[in-house]
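dumping this here before i forget
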Amino acid sequence: MLELAKELSGNAYPGRGIVIGRSANGKYAVTAYFIMGRSSNSRNRVFVTEGEGIRTEAFDPSKLEDPSLIIYAPVRVLGNDTIVTNGDQTDTIYDGMKAGQTFEQSLRCREFEPDGPNYTPRISGVMHVENGEYDYAMSILKSNDGAPSCCNRYTFTYDKPIAGQGHFIHTYMHDGNPLPSFCGEPKKVAISDDMDEFTQMVWENLNEENKVSLFVRFIDIATGEYRTKIINKNA
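structure:
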């Protein structure tokens, strides 16, 4: 099991990242989602609350150059399911699951982002909390080693997650031109009990120049009640 702090501090540009797991005391379903940016357009963003979820907004609307791929709802809630993604596929999953599809089925109509030569992976997760039970799944849709003619689809499911463990996926292995897509299974990382401590740990270990915003949610598995923290560099 890896230390999330080291995974973050040792990578200047993981891009966008999703962590999902269970707190060390077993009480909470935990998720974190962060965004980073290298361009002024990507950095000109904040997270704002929308319903039970969040969305991205331009911090300075007058400087917004291109809203595609950067303005979307990363988090939405459908009944007992919390959906977390790095793009507008949040809406695709929400609509698909509402219509009776599974998490995996709902993503069949989507691919990686059309931002060649990077072809940024679409990373997604869904947490299901109901009647004191908890499970989650994660997905990555990526080009075939940079070849846009083929979309590789991976789904990972975690039944009855173990206390203190979580999984971390991010869009890029590290900085570069083009940016190399994440590869392998989601990384197994330790999850603590303290929401404030966990939030600060993630935020403080993201690259200072590139980090933009962070969302963290702790869901009480017994009651379904949740607490949310948002940190925006542009505050």
